[in-house]
Amino acid sequence: MKSNTYRKKGVVSRLSEKIYMYISRFVNVSETEKSIRSICVEAPKEISVKCRSYYIGTIKQVIIILAISIIISVIAMVKHACSKDEIVLEREGYGGDTKELELLTRIEDTVTRFSVDILPIEYTEEEIEQIFDKGFEYIDENFLGSNSSIDSITGDLNLMSYIEELGLEVNWTSYEPDIINSSGVITKELLDKPCKVVLVAKLSYMDYSRSKEYVLNAVGRQATGKEQIINSIKSFIMDAQIKKPDEEIIIIPNEVSGYTLSLSKKGINASFILICGCVVAVYVIAKKNSTLKNMNKERDSILLQRYPEFVDKLLLYMGAGLSVKGALYKLSEEKQYSQSSNKSKSYNLLEEELGYTINEISSGISESDAYINLGHRLKLPVYMKIFSLLSQNIKKGTKDVLIMLEQEKESSNFLKRELAKKKGEEAGTKLLFPMFVLLGIVMIIVVVPALMSF
């Protein structure tokens, strides 16, 4: 029968049980059983089963989370491996913006990442040619600024953005922005040797535009070998776009100037997915432990709130002539009333513990030992104290037990006042945030109209 039941369980369940059998030697299972016993009034065997289910359920969730993260990681790696290496430059339509594409290449056994510009589709030169000619004449006369010649650029250029006399807009594009940017500012002043820089001026009037290329010779430090290779690849890609200004898609070969190119893919990182899966698994374990601790805190809080009521009723029943056992039995029967009211399940825990103690006494455990056990199960000092008094009353036959209960009632009333005071302080603290929010709203209502009136 056991083997059939085992076969019916899923792979995850069987694996979870095996993991639990292994880690149970290193985990403090007895402490978890005590925590579960504090909120569940059941026999030790049933508590052990619940503790086992608690651990196996947690392990199941962790296994499922890790399995899902591994599957997603494998899919991401396969997708990355199967993706095409063909480089496609998708250009924007007329009047679009310049985009950037990140590429990878291997230079001297080092993977280098760099960006290339993807220019939008440009209109052909068909209309308003005379106006554009005058515009370019104006640019030719003024764009050099303080420089004497295009063969020796040593200072910033005067790249105007608008020609007022002709009403033309001018947009500049630099193919070497790391040397001279599109504003004409020299960004790299020191070069080992002169370097060619290509600037493109684009004149626009309404829907018409025309571009002209200016090849400059920037004087300064010489670019490094890696920079020269990157610049040659950029120039190749830029030339390919200039040669076909009206094509939307341009195919770039995987090898340029003897160096292989590949896309810098920004897909989902498999290792990142695995790390996220591990973080979620740790969160699930921490959440389970936190939930169990919070349930124990709620249980202790409810037991403390009910202590004055318990002492009052115990004194009432014993004052009416009932024995300790009879009084506790009457109190355990009040669970039915609590269940019919709108109370949480933890509210009935005291009655359940009293009923459990009555069953222990009926099964042969002495009253004094049963009361001591009850105090230890409830764990709170006030309950341990009163059940210790009741246990002594059974052993020694103390006559003044009612007097001691009267004194305990006074102490419980003081505890009741302290708990009420503490709850009031907590309520006041919780109200602070809403009060600050309301204050902010009121200030906005008052200040905004005042500022708008200026």
Describe the structure using short key phrases:
58% helix, four-stranded antiparallel sheet, single chain, 454 residues, alpha+beta, 10 strands
What does this structure look like?
With 454 residues, the protein is of the alpha+beta class. 58% of the residues lie in helices and 14% in strands. The chain has 14 helices and 10 strands. It has helices at 2-8, 11-23, 29-39, 44-82, 129-142, 225-243, 270-319, 324-333, 335-340, 349-362, 367-378, 381-396, 401-430, 432-452; strands at residues 87-90, 99-107, 110-118, 162-163, 168-174, 195-205, 208-218, 249-252, 255-256, 259-263. The strands form 3 sheets. A 4-stranded antiparallel sheet has the order 3-2-10-9, with helices on one face. The model is unreliable at 1-7 and 336-342 (pLDDT under 50).
Strand order of the largest sheet: 3-2-10-9
- Specify the helix fraction band: 55-70%
Shape: elongated
Low-confidence stretches: 1-7, 336-342
Please count the beta strands (DSSP E, at least 2 residues each): 10
Largest sheet: 4 strands, antiparallel
Mean pLDDT across all residues, rounded? 78
How would you summarize what this structure contains?
With 454 residues, the chain is of the alpha+beta class.
